[in-house]
Here is the input.
Amino acid sequence: MKDQTRTLANPLSESELRALLLEYRSENWRGIQLPETQRKVVEDTIRGDAGGPLRLLANYIPISADSRILDLGAGVGSFVVACRDGGLQAFGLEPDKIGAGARITSIQIARRRLSDPVFVNGIGEQLPFRENFFDVIVMNQVIEHVIDQKSVIAEAGRILRPGGAIYVACPNYLRFYEPHYKIRWAPLLPKPLGRLYLRLKGRSPAMINQITYTTNARLRKLLTSLGPEFEVIDVHCEQFLKKRAEDAFAAPSTRFIARMTKPPLLGNFLLWLVLKFGSLTEGGCEMVVLRKPRASKA
Here is the structure.
C-alpha cells in the first residue's frame, strides 16, 4: 500500500453524508434497530468524536505524520477521516458483512468521504498487507463481529511493527444488554433462544447470527495468544488503578471503596475483588496491545 496523506477536502457535504447514512441504515439495519435509533446513530456518526482511540493510544506510543494507521473494520470511515483530517497516514479495511448484496454499503460511503483511495475491501482473517507494516491498528467495536477471532488477532499481530500498538474495544456480553439491537439481553444468551426472543420482539436475527459473544476474559486470552513479544493492557483496569493511586475518584462511594483496597493483605484481596467485579459487569472491554521494540544491536 502506497503511503499517502489526505490531499483534498471531504467530497461529501454534511447533508449528503446524512442522506447516505440514513439510506444505508434504513436498508441494512431494518429489523435490527428501530428507525429512531437509526437516526440517532447517524447523528452520532456525524457529530461524534471519532478520534478518541488515537488520543488514548498516544499515551502509550508516539504517533506522528510518519505513522501508518489501519482501521480494521472501518465501517463508514469516520476514524480514518478523523485521522486524515489531522494529516495522518490512515487506511481502512472493511468486509461489510451487514451490507452484502445491498444497494448501498458502508465501504461505498467511506470511499465517497475521501478523495484518496485509502479503503480496502477485505477480511481480517487474511489481511492484504505485508508483515511489520503498520504502527497502529484499531479494532473499535469489530472483534465481536468476527467468527475466527484468533486468526484476526494473529493477522493484526503479524502486520504490526515492533514498537507499535493495537487498540481493541468491544461490548462485554456478560451485561444485561445487547448494544446493536439496543435491548435488554441475558448474559451469553444461547443463540437459539436469542433468535426466538428477537422474533418475539419483531426484530430480525440477522445481526445476532454474526455476533461472537466476547467478554473481558475472552478478549484478554485472545490477545495474550500473540505471545510474550506483546504486552496486553486492560485500559479500564489501568485507569482505575491510576485514580486509586491519586485518590482522584469523584463519587464518594467509589472513593471509599478505593481507599479500602489500600491496606496490606486484606486490601490486596479487596482490590482483586473490585477489579474482578469491574471486568464482569462493565459495559465494554477496552484493551491496548503493545509490541515490544526490537533490541538494538550492539
